[in-house]
Amino acid sequence: MQLWIVRHAQPLIAPGLCYGTLDVPADAQATQAAAQTLALSLPKDAVVHCSTLQRCELLARHLIGLRPDLSLHFDARLREMDFGSWEGQRWDSLPPQALKDWTDDFENYRCGGTGESTGQFVARVYAALQHAWPAAPEQGSTVWITHAGVARAIDWLHQQKRATPPWAPLCPPLCLSAHAWPQHAPGFGQSVCWNLSSHQGPA
């Protein structure tokens, strides 16, 4: 199975703000350019799953307009991580102790008090991956139009050899740690293709 992870275009938000599930728009011109590039790259009849946040939906709509052979489905599990009360605040304005508490208990600490823990977030992405996996890998490619955090979660699952069947329950403890959390993610409007069937990394 090929899984294409596509990140939304540059959001229209001030630099340095926390905007996980904050539903901010993306730059329309950059989104259109990203869709045009992606339309030339994706294989025929790929299945597109999209985050329900508008910065991803805009890219999906542009892409489908250019590639009507693609089918589009929306999936809230592909949303960015929920940072609770931190949403919309500057990262450098957050209490240092709260950030330390998160890195010290990276798997279980709920960001912003009411947000998700990293463990909950990874479990959500894992459930979406289980649902998206075709009955037979040769049926075609799957495309996720999503966020940097989701890309990092897939990277982590791949490193743990949990991104392919058999789908064992993802039960805590997951041994998630801040220092081992993947840092790389596609740039705004960019994509990476994972060959999950053969346990290979991104192409």
What does this entry look like structurally?
- By secondary structure, the chain is α/β, with parallel strands linked by helices.
- It has one domain (2-190): Phosphoglycerate mutase-like (Rossmann fold).
- Helix content is 31%, strand content 12%.
- It contains five helices and five strands; from the N terminus they run βαβαβααβαβ.
- It has a five-stranded mixed beta sheet.
- The longest helix has 15 residues, at 118-132.
- 37% of the residues are buried.
- The mean pLDDT is 93.
In short:
With 203 residues, this protein is an alpha/beta fold. The protein has helices at 28-41, 54-66, 96-104, 118-132, 148-159; strands at 2-7, 47-50, 71-74, 142-146, 191-195.
**Kindly state the mean pLDDT as a whole number?**
93
What coarse outline follows from CA principal-axis ratios? Answer: globular
**Total strand segments:** 5
Order of helices and strands: EHEHEHHEHE
Percent range of helical residues: 25-40%
Evaluate the radius of gyration.
17 Å
Count of separate structural domains: 1
Q: Structural class given helices, strands, pairing?
A: alpha/beta
Strand order of the largest sheet: 3-2-4-1-5
How much of the polypeptide forms β-strand, as a percent range?
Answer: 5-15%
Relevant CATH superfamily: Phosphoglycerate mutase-like
**Architecture in CATH?**
3-Layer(aba) Sandwich
- Under CATH, the topology can be stated as Rossmann fold
* Stretches with pLDDT under 50, minimum 5 residues: none
Number of helices: 5
- Main beta-sheet strand count, sense and barrel state: 5 strands, mixed
CATH class: Alpha Beta
Distance between the termini: 13 Å
